[in-house]
């Protein structure tokens, strides 16, 4: 029993480290002012409209909507363990807020294009590392990833294809809301939500994982116990 508890703690510690790195990626991407990763576009845009509600709060609200969407699609096939997405949503949301606060305390958003590109690439690496650790730990389940998997099952499509369509949909919704709220497609004029950085994060993260995944497998793979141990 004690060993099982220890194994669970190890898995969730690794997954939590993954969430922290992804949240740091969100903070760095916002600091770059060159565009946000697709899953964070709607919460960031809504925060620009209603500044009294944090990006993290809008993030977990969006994740709860994703969970409801999953339930509507799956019906009786929705498993109770999927409800672990709810605490994951809160943890990730407030980690995003902590990351944004941290980088805001350091400096204002960058205006030097080279620095913006470097920050965007740093966000790519942080996100790639974080996603791998989430998967490796098999602890927290983020609603965005699970929703993609559920949609993939529903339409019988490839995960990578459905993921791209899902991300494009989030960016399109953000652009529409941005135009309605601010008369611009990219943000409120001072904070950029959609730009080339959005594309960089959308397409380079997967490519980056081809290089970072083997490294993390070597560093953490032996630490992760099997779920039935």
Question: Could you give a quick summary of the protein structure above?
Answer:
This protein has 229 residues and is mainly alpha-helical. Helix content is 74%, strand content 0%.
Overall description:
By secondary structure, this protein is mainly α. It has one domain (2-223). The chain is 74% helix and 0% strand. It has eight helices and no strands. Helix 2 packs across helix 3, helix 3 (55-74) packs antiparallel against helix 4 and helix 3 (55-74) runs parallel beside helix 6 (143-155). The longest helix has 31 residues, at 2-32. The radius of gyration is 18 Å and the shape is globular. It starts with a helix and ends in a 9-residue tail after the last helix.
Strand content: under 5%
Q: From the alpha-carbon coordinates, what is the Rg to the nearest angstrom?
A: 18 Å
**Strand tally:** 0
Terminal residue distance? 10 Å
